[in-house]
Design a protein that fits this description.
Blueprint: H1 2-22, H2 27-50, H3 56-83, H4 87-116
Helix pairs in contact: 1-2, 1-4, 2-3, 3-4
Length: 117
């Protein structure tokens, strides 16, 4: 399961980058795009770090960071979805929002499981 989440988070970061390369280049969009690229790549990189946790507390702490970055990515995707005028990108944005939502749910479930065991 961990390898699957590593793969999905990495693919999420790549897909977000590809989406961002298609968005308008303006001062207004650039702020959101830059934040989205940072949070989505941090999401993937920090999940990799989870697999190297040194203790249960470290594992949970690293997962909380991943949860925050994933939630931030989802937020910026939602904002971009609302301001996007390019209807050709709408389905890709919605797919990425759904993927972020699913990954956040998995991370939250992992945190709850780790805390209870």
């Amino acid at each position: 399961m961990k390898q699957e989440i590593i793969r999905r988070t990495k693919q999420f970061a790549i897909d977000v980058w590809r989406l961002c390369s298609k968005l308008p280049h303006s001062r207004e969009f650039n702020g959101y795009v830059n934040q989205l690229i940072r949070s989505s790549s941090s999401f993937a990189a920090n999940y990799r770090a989870v697999t190297r946790a040194k203790s249960k507390a470290d594992f949970i702490n690293k997962l909380k960071i991943v949860e925050e970055e994933a939630d931030e990515s989802q937020f910026f995707l939602e904002v971009i979805n609302e301001i996007n005028d390019n209807f050709e990108l709408s389905s890709e944005i919605k797919r990425l929002i759904k993927e972020a939502d699913e990954l956040v749910a998995i991370i939250v479930a992992s945190i709850k499981t780790s805390r209870s065991s």
